[in-house]
């Protein structure tokens, strides 16, 4: 499957229909010894891939990496991939829930706060009445012991779910999926804040700002103390390093003409 390097991580230039077909195939053929996992990748992740070796390894070993951030989608376009979708986390999550309801795939949730999980389930079941949630757990905000993690894995496998939404935020969720891939029997997808948006516990950026690549700015206005440092470092790093990468790409392309 085609992968495109953006800074130090790889993204698959795909469309939503391809993603859903792939998930359906994985869910219907769970014969392998390890699970599949999907990363929903933003500008923050691209910048994290430069400095965080553990995250980079976890992300680049995933089965699929989606262009969540609008700038990541634009980057794919600039590299010549025209037939590709922008796949923000909330859209991907909603599409998977619709798929799960239609195909009777059992769903689990790992991460997020308990009240957010409850609201997400309620909102999702209101729209997709036949969806089946068979597992949910809100882990403590600390590192888990080996025994705690083993107990979690045992319960997830015991629930016999097909799809697990992992909502720990980047880079934690990517690392967790990578470390537990060979112990689980389901499709994992790291959806981060999408859980909050679909639960309506956080306000999603207006579509016009998302299309302009300014969803991060809207989130910054809503949560300035938590996000200012993260966005300042991530966005600046991405802008500088990707500009160099793009210039080198086009120079090489011109040279080969």
Could you please describe the fold and organization of this structure?
The protein has 257 residues and is α/β, with parallel strands linked by helices. It has one domain (4-255). Helix content is 55%, strand content 14%. The protein contains twelve helices and eight strands. The chain has helices spanning 16-28, 43-51, 53-60, 70-78, 89-103, 114-127, 146-158, 172-180, 194-199, 207-211, 215-222, 224-255, and strands at residues 4-6, 9-11, 36-41, 64-67, 106-111, 132-137, 163-167, 187-190. Strands 4-3-8-7-5-6 form a six-stranded parallel beta sheet, sandwiched between helices. Strand 5, helix 6 (114-127) and strand 6 form a beta-alpha-beta unit. The longest helix is centred in the C-terminal third of the chain and has 32 residues, at 224-255. The model has no long low-confidence stretch (mean pLDDT 94).
């Amino acid at each position: 499957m085609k992968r495109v390097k953006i800074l130090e991580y790889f993204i698959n230039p795909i469309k939503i229909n391809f993603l859903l077909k792939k998930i359906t195939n994985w869910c219907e053929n769970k014969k392998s010894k390890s699970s599949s996992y999907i990363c929903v990748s933003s500008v923050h992740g691209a910048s994290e891939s430069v400095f965080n070796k553990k995250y980079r390894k976890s992300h680049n070993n995933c089965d699929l990496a989606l262009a969540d951030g609008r700038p990541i989608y634009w980057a794919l376009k600039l590299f010549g991939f025209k037939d590709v979708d922008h796949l923000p986390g909330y859209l991907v999550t909603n599409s998977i829930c619709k798929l799960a309801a239609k195909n009777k795939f059992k769903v689990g949730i790992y991460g997020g706060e308990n009240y957010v999980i409850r609201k997400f389930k309620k909102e999702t079941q209101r729209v997709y009445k036949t969806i089946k949630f068979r597992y949910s757990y809100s882990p403590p905000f600390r590192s888990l012991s080996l025994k705690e993690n083993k107990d979690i894995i045992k319960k997830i496998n015991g629930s016999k779910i097909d799809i697990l939404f992992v909502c720990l935020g980047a880079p934690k969720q990517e690392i967790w999926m990578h470390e537990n891939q060979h112990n689980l029997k389901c499709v994992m997808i790291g959806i981060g804040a999408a859980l909050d948006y679909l639960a309506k516990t956080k306000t999603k950026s207006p579509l016009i700002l998302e299309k302009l690549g300014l969803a991060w700015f809207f989130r910054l206005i809503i949560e300035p103390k938590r996000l200012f440092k993260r966005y300042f470092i991530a966005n600046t790093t991405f802008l500088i390093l990707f500009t160099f990468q793009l210039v080198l790409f086009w120079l090489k392309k011109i040279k080969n003409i």
